[in-house]
Amino acid sequence: MVLSINILAISSLIYANDGTNNLGSKDTPPPETTTLSVDVTEEKATTDRALIEEEFPGMPVAVCANLPYYITSPIVMKLLGDSLPIQNLTVMVQKEAADRLAAAPGTRASSAISCAVSYYATSKLMFTAAPGSFYPAPKVTSAVVRMDIRPTPAVQVEDEEGYFALIRAAFGQRRKTAANAIASGLGLPKDKVIAAIEAAGFDARIRPEALTLEDFAAVQRELK
Q1: Residue 94 in contact with residue 69, Cβ under 8 Å?
Q2: Taking the C-alpha atoms of 71, 111, 149 and 49 in order, what is their torsion angle to the nearest 10 degrees?
Q3: Residue 58 contacts by C-beta under 8 Å, 6 or more apart in sequence?
Q4: What are 127-164's pLDDT values in tens digits?
Q5: For residue 166, what is the enclosing H or E element?
Q6: Predicted TM-score of the model (pTM)
Q7: Phi/psi zone of residue 66: left (φ > 0), alpha (ψ -120 to 50 degrees), beta?
C-alpha cells in the first residue's frame, strides 16, 4: 500500500480495492488524486467506459493492478475486450500467468490467453519479483507484464466471438492436435475441421501452439 500511495502522489489513477475503503490513516492519497473504490468481483462494479470518461475526461489512462492468480484472465480480458479508453495495462501476477500473458502466438508457450492478449495489445514481461521481495513472503515468484493497447486489433476477422471460440477450443485440450481439439470443443465433424486446416495451408496434425493469430483467422475462414 505504501508503494501505491507513492505512485498516487505523482499520478491520477483508478485505485481498485475490495470495496472496504480500508486505506488506513497513513495510506490516505493526496487530495488532488482521483481515487475510486471498485469491487471487481461484482458484475455491476467493473470498470467501464462511462466511468473512465467521466472521471478522467481527455486524460491518458493507464491501469495498474496486482492480480490474484484465479482472476487474472477474467480481469485482463474484461479490460481488453471491452475496448475501454486506456493506453496500457500493467499487472503483477504469478510468474506462470505472466509467461502466458507475454507469450507470442505461434510459440511453444502460447495459450488461449496469449492469443487474446496479442489480438488486443502488444505485451512484454518487464521483470520478476522473488518471494523475498514481499512481506510476508508468498510461496511463488511474481512477475510484471505490460500490455500496450493496439489502436486496432492485430488481425481483422468478421466474427470476433467465433474467432475466440475457435481459439479457446483449440487450446482446450493441449495434448491433442488442433483438429481434434477444435472438433471436440466446437462439436464439429473432425473431417470438416481437418479439411479446413489443410485448406488454410497447414498439416492436419498441427498443434494449436504452432498457430499464429493470422493462422487461426485463416482456419476460421475455411470453416465457414
Answers
A1: yes
A2: -40
A3: none
A4: 999 999 988 999 999 999 999 999 999 999 999 999 99
A5: helix 160-171
A6: 0.80
A7: beta
